[in-house]
Structure formats: structure tokens, C-alpha cells
Amino acid sequence: MQKIAQLPGVGLVSLSGGQKPAVRIQVNPALLAGYGLTLEDVRNAVAAANVNQAKGSLDGPYQAYTIGANDQLHQSAQYRTLVVAYRNNAPVQLADVADVIDGAENVRQAAWMNDRPAIVVNIQRQPGANIIEVVDRVKRLLPQLAAGLPASVKVEVLTDRTTTIRASVHDVQFELMLAVVLVVLVIFVFLRSAAATFIPSVTVPVSIVGTFAVMYALGYSLNNLSLMALTIATGFVVDDAVVMIENIARYIEEGEAPLAAAFKGAGQIGFTILSLTVSLIAVLIPLLFMGDIVGRLFREFAMTLAGAILVSAVVALTLTPMMCAKLLKRPEERKEGRFGRAAERAFNRVVTAYMGSLRRILAHQPAVLVVAGVTLLVTLALYLQPVQDLTVEDRVSRTQFQYSLEDADEKELRLWAPRLVARLREQPVLRDVASDQQDSGLEALVSIDRATASRLGITPQMVDDALYNAFGQ
Questions:
Q1: What's this model's pTM, rounded to 2 decimal places?
Q2: Which of 58, 410, 413, 423 is most deeply packed, by most CB within 10 A?
Q3: pLDDT band at residue 393 using 50, 70 and 90 as cut-offs
């Protein structure tokens, strides 16, 4: 535990299921009563014979000694010969009235890995630390820890929260790359120009990289929230570049010079891009002012998305027109090769096929509506509640949603909590409604008659000691 706790980024290391060794004394009440002894006599004898305190030291002119003694017992065999009392001038040993065995300190504490007994080491990261880096450091340390353990002890990873996080990051990275590739392909299909295809393949990544610069300046990292914002922002980044390229390409096809078309197209579409940018950023303002933990989490999402929108607007108004002016050419100046002519024919065939299928679909509208309805039902039927990596509450629940009911008056809470659960169970849209209250367990209550106990010289502490001697661990 100490080596793991010393790793950078590790905040807390705790153990679950560890059973400390202990000596258990199982007293036979009948034998104890036969000697005229009580459980308290046994407890006092054990406590008096087993101590571990400082015993001082011997200081001489040349040497110094620390005093030690065998005043502490460690094994059950040492306890068996312990003298509890003397009866008829003979010692009564602990083995005469009890079974003394080696056991666990707490028999009700245990942990399992699947179906095998285990000791679970819970590792939590420090606030702000990168969870993937922390997990990688721990995994690199595990072989060293395993080498120092007995051969019968195996060290394995029970749960790793970064598995789904790594998968999410990988999927988002793939989606970002796929979005850029699709944009390039769509522009190539419609414009059939290598130059027009090259422009978004440069401007879109530049916009995303510019967003990374904004994230770095704000102290953000790549996580599920920032990656989600980047995924959503990809559509805005793509739109700005495509709209600008298509508008400039339109003027070039009408006979304008590339530079003039760039000025004219950018000037015409510039205000539209600016207004869209301002509108989209304004939509994110409520997220910036949300309070509590949810607001702190989604503030990073909103700032990343706003940064991506702003950077894409700047790139669309500067870099994209400049590249269009330098790279795009008039139709008569372009040399359309064999591939371009083949692409033109393929595109015309696709348009013809699309028009034919559209006519057939419009001629059978009822059947199309039926297919759409069936598709909707199948979609609802296929709805993998996803694994949640982002949690706000620290409580473990067996249900998807939680509702906390609090009250300063415990009696009032016990009265209304069951009523609320019963009413929620009546709602048809809710299933598996349950409460985490566990207040229906059995309890044996000992009521002390304090007046009588005082006359007999019995205190509540003596009653508690007697009960725990008999029934405690």
C-alpha cells in the first residue's frame, strides 16, 4: 500500500476484506460456572496477562540497553496455559473453561474476487490528476509488488474504470478522423476538384488544432466532456469551411477570377458565419452559469465547444478564402482527367437512380410510413443503458436514477419515505422502485432497571461488558 500511495496522482489507498489474525476464546459457560467464575473474570485475566507497554532502559557508562519482556502473548497455545483463578489451592487455566483457537479479528469482514477469497485494494486518484496516467503507473508497479509476495498470492486487476474511458477516447478520435475524411470525400464528389478537396483537408484539422490551443490555455485535458464537445464541434467546423468553399467556387464557375471570387464570396458569406458563431456561443451561455457540480462539469464542455466554434469561424474567414484564391481555378483552366470524367458519369448515375427511387417512394407513401413506424419501434426495443463513467453521486445504487429524501426529524422521514416509495411504484413509467433504507432488521433490546442495578452495585458499563463478553466477537 505504501508504494502505491507514493505514486504521483494517487490520492487514497484503502483495503477491503483484509482479515487480521486474532486469538479467539470460546468460553464454556457450564464449566465456568462450575468453578464459580464469570466471563468478566476471564476478560480481566486475559487483559492483565497480555500487555505491551514501554519498560524503560538501562544506561551505563559504555553501553545502553532497552528493556523488553515476554509480556505479550501472540499464539493460542500461549493463552491456553493462562491462569484465570485459583480454586482449592489449584490453578484454573484458560484451557479448563474455554476452547482457545487461532482465528480472524472480524469474521464478518471479507472480500472475494469472483468466487475466490481476496483482499481488495481500492485506489483513488487525486483531484485533477489524469486517471489514465495514474492507472498506467499502478499497472507498471504491480509486477514489482507481486515479486515480493508469496507464490500462493496472486495480484490481479479486479476493476479498471479506464477501460471504458480509453474506449471512449479511441472512438471519439476515430469519429473525428472519419468526419474529416467524409468532408473531403463529399467535397470531392460534388466539386470534383483536387484543389477544393485539399482546402478543407487543411482548414478542418487546423480548426481542431486551434481548439486544442484554447483548451491548453484554459487548463483543460482530453476527457469525455472535452471530447464530446470536439465531436459536436466537428459539424460546425465542417459547415464553416464547406459554406465558404462552395460560395467562392460558385463565383469562380461563373467566370470570376479566383482572387475576386474569394473577396466577393467571403464578403457575402462572412456576416452569415459571424452571426451563426455569435448565435451558437449564445446558446452555450446558460451552461456557463450553471451551479453546483453539474455546472462545474459542463463548464468545460461549454468552453471547449465555444472555443471550437470561434476558431472555426476565424479559420473560415481567413485561411479558407486565402487558399481558395490561390488554389481554385476556372473551369476552362482545369484539366479534367479520366478519373474526373468517370466520377462525373458515376455522379450522374447516382442522381438518376436517386430520382427514380424518390418517385417510387412518393408513389407508395402509406408503405413508407409503415416502414418508418416499424423502424422507430425496433429502435426503441434496442434501447445498452450505457456504462456511466461520469458520476456525480458517490452512492452505489442498483437502479439508474436516485432520489434523495432528507428530513431533520427521523420519525417524520420514516413516516413519509415508505409512502413516497409506494406512490412511485404506482406510476406506470417507473420500474424496480426501491428504497435503500434498512430499518426493518431484528433487534433485541435490553432495558436496564437503573434503580435495582444501583442497589446491587451494577453499572451500565458492567452490563455492556457482560453482554459483549457473551455475544461479541
A1: 0.58
A2: 413
A3: low
